[in-house]
Amino acid sequence: MAGRSAVFFDLDRTLMAGSSAFEFGRAAYRAGLLSRRRMASSAYENLRFRLVGSTDERTDELRDRIASLIEGVDARSMQRLAPDVLAGVLPRLYPQMLKEAWMHQDAGRPVYIMTAASQEIAGLLALILGFDGGIGARSEIVDGRYTGRGEGIFTYREGKAEAIRKLAADQGFDLAESYAYSDSESDLPMLRAVGHPVAVNPDRPLAKVAAEEGWEIMTFETIGRRLVLGGAILTTALAGGIGALVARRDGRRWV
Questions:
Q1: Helix, strand and coil percent figures for the chain, each rounded to 5
Q2: How far from the centroid of its chain's Cα atoms is residue 27's Cα?
Q3: 3-class SS at 115?
Q4: Which residue has the higher pLDDT, 78 or 214?
Q5: Which positions are catalytic?
Q6: What percent of the chain lies above the pLDDT cut of 70?
Q7: Do the Cβ atoms of 18 and 12 come closer than 8 Å?
């Protein structure tokens, strides 16, 4: 007999377009915690992430940057950035994925956000969306200030699968009957931990695995296609302009 199932959603490029870390960076910049140069770098990384996804190396770099940013910062001051971060995240949520999540809830399945973003953002966003919980990366706080060190499971790659198995054991979920949604190859441990994995706007390695293993694939991120189309239009326009210029020059020569 099937047990109680649950549903786990990655956040970046799965529930939302782009990176929640970028929205955190914007909020930190407005609060004076981030330089203009680092903000520009974050904007570039966000665009790159939307186009091709992330890698282990870039994730480690991002984790280190955030750790150095928050080290020594008063925890309450940092937590007060949450409304500003959410103001950037909420408009970027995919309506298709919200509909999918609420469909699962209506069918009696608890829904969780499972992300490498901060626990504060994961928990607050889950509360606002009416989800059953949010699990993210925790940062150590000592005497009311962030130390810059992580705490507990780092919810990335195998860490997500470990967190899911722990939650399943605590809540009595049957992972063979459960669902997981993600965009990235890095989440293969999480996707393989459940009986119903779904690839959402998958990067190339995940798309390959999903196709080989017959997983459901959902695709609706359009920024890559828009940039490719825009590049083709620009190339055509430039070629046409150059052709017209050459024709005019040739015409003058013939005259």
A1: 60, 20, 25
A2: 17
A3: strand
A4: 214
A5: 10, 12
A6: 71
A7: yes
